[in-house]
Specification:
Length: about 290
C-alpha cells in the first residue's frame, strides 16, 4: 500500500457556521475538534466545470482508471494526439480541465496533454482525499499513459509533482505554479482560519501521523526539491493571497537546477491563464 499523508488544502473562505462549530467543539474537547478539523481538511469542494473549460472537456478522450495502491478510480483526460506527452496536475478543489489555457497552447505547439480529476475531485469518485493519493495517481498514470516529457502542477498539484518525481516519476523537466511548501505551515494556516489556537494544528499533525504512520514534513515541497536534479521552473505571484510567494522562493532555493519566475497582480488562479506565464512555460519546455 502507498503511504498516506494529509492533503495541504489552500486558503478557502470558510463559512461562519463551520468556524462557530469549530470553536464550540474546541471548548468541549480538543480531541473532538481535531477529528472535525481532519475531516474538513481532507474534503475538497467539487465545483461545476465552468464554460471556459467546456472545449477541453469536450475534445478530450476520457477514461476511468483504477489506482491499485489507494483502491480508488479516477477520470483521466487525453487532449491532443502527439507522442510528446505532458502531464498536468490540478490543485485542491480543482479539475483536470482547470489548466485548459496552458493545455491549448501546448497542443498548438505540437504536444499532447494528459490530465486527471484527482480522487474526490471533478468526475472522480469519493468525498475525501489526501496528497499521497494525488502522488499515487500520478505514478499510476505514468504507467498507463507515459512516458511524459514534462510534468506541470498547480498549487497542491505542484507539491504532488515534486513528490512524485522524488518517488520515481521520470520526466525531463517540471513546472510548478503557485505551490505550497511546508506542510506544517499549511496546517497552521488552516487552523487559523477556523479561529482555533495554534496548538490544534500540532494535534492535527499528530492525528495524521498516527493514522497514516508517516511524518508530515516528509511531504513538504522543499524537501522533495532537494532530491530533484532535473530542471524545474517555479512560477509564483508576489500577490498570491492563498499561498505566499515565500513558499515558491523557498522551493526554488532548495532545487539543484531551478529557475524562478515571479509575477505581480495575478493571484493564485489568474496566473494559469496569463499569456506571459504561458509564454514562459512554452519557452522553458522548448529550451535545451
Amino acid at each position: 500500500m502507498a503511504k498516506n499523508t494529509t492533503n495541504p488544502t489552500q486558503s478557502l473562505k470558510i463559512p461562519r457556521v463551520i468556524i462557530l462549530s469549530s470553536k464550540i467543539l474546541a471548548f468541549i474537547s480538543p480531541k473532538l475538534v481535531t477529528t472535525f478539523a481532519a475531516k474538513l481538511f481532507t474534503s475538497p469542494i467539487k465545483h461545476k466545470v465552468p464554460k471556459r473549460e467546456f472545449e477541453m472537456d469536450l475534445k478530450s478522450v476520457k477514461n476511468k482508471i483504477f489506482i491499485p495502491v489507494i483502491n480508488k478510480s479516477i477520470v483521466t483526460y487525453e487532449y491532443g494526439k502527439s507522442e510528446r506527452k505532458i502531464l498536468l496536475v490540478h490543485g485542491w478543489s480543482g479539475r483536470g480541465t482547470q489548466l485548459f489555457k496552458i493545455a491549448d497552447e501546448l497542443v498548438q505547439n505540437g504536444y499532447s496533454v494528459v490530465s486527471f480529476d484527482a480522487p474526490a475531485h471533478g468526475k472522480s469518485e469519493g468525498k475525501t482525499t489526501i496528497m499521497s493519493e494525488f502522488i499515487a495517481s500520478i505514478l499510476e498514470i505514468e504507467k498507463q499513459f507515459g512516458p511524459f516529457k514534462i510534468a506541470i502542477g498547480h498549487s497542491l498539484g505542484g507539491m504532488s509533482v515534486l513528490n512524485a518525481i522524488k518517488d520515481g516519476l521520470k520526466v525531463e523537466k517540471a513546472i510548478i505554479i503557485g505551490s505550497g511548501d511546508i506542510v506544517q505551515d499549511i496546517l497552521e494556516e488552516f487552523i487559523s482560519k477556523l479561529g482555533l489556537k495554534r496548538e490544534i494544528s500540532d494535534r492535527l499533525r499528530d492525528h495524521f501521523e498516527n493514522k497514516y504512520k508517516v511524518k508530515m514534513n516528509d511531504f513538504s515541497a522543499y524537501k522533495a526539491a532537494q532530491k530533484i536534479q532535473i530542471p524545474v521552473l517555479v512560477i509564483h505571484d508576489n500577490d498570491d493571497p492563498e499561498v505566499p510567494v515565500t513558499a515558491g522562493i523557498n522551493i526554488h532555493r532548495n532545487l539543484q537546477n531551478g529557475s524562478l519566475f515571479l509575477t505581480d497582480g495575478l493571484g493564485h488562479r489568474k496566473i494559469l491563464g496569463n499569456q506571459n506565464v504561458i509564454k514562459k512555460v512554452i519557452d522553458f519546455i522548448k529550451s535545451t
